[in-house]
């Protein structure tokens, strides 16, 4: 029997013992023995977590299937993988398994987008993404975005509706009423990334790679708005700002669009022109990833960076090759 098989046998037996400890805890009511039993249960839970880590470490790391949508979290200042594991009731090993591009688990950067080992259900037809801020609760967000706590819990696979953490990226379903939907998207512009294929036939999807709202960066508008189709180009641009380039990007299938001092709100593609709608912010940056499949033709495309009022900020060119 090899190491991983033996570890699984031990874990299986520990889980049987866990049930026995639970029954024992229910039957013993004397205060001193009860405290001893609860201490044993805590130690046994720690053993199970260690066994999970051991098995995950022995297994070959495999990236999640592209068809599986995982919850995500933007790393906040001072957070580590250990702290994230505690917040989301998981282990560092499980987080690493769904983030195979993390080379050093002891070094993660503020603003980095981390996949969480939390599988999400099928997305609603219309939704937008919102990053939890300090003081947010599901009840307040449900009121703010004209939805329900139950819907937020369901679409984000939240286990405890009373507990959400700053940095968690939530999927917010659009309001059912179209007039309310328009009001919501306009009123909270700057907080959301629109993903509504049915209402915007030219709009295309994007994924946030990294976002920061705390650090100051200098540069001209021309330097602060950019595109990259190679890892070398992205690293060279970000080096000017002292920003670490994200690791998990396949440039054979994706391009990167970046905005320093702005948030990227929406993308609109028409012919060979990609309009990138951005909103100004005093600090931070926003990096997104767009799959080349979103572009209908190969060749040179113009990238127009514009404000929400459609005022032009800058223009770039990028070549798309499948």
UniProtKB/TrEMBL annotation:
Give all residue intervals belonging to the LysM domain: 71-116, 128-172
Fetch the Pfam families from UniProt: LysM
Q: What is this protein called?
A: Peptidoglycan-binding lysin domain protein
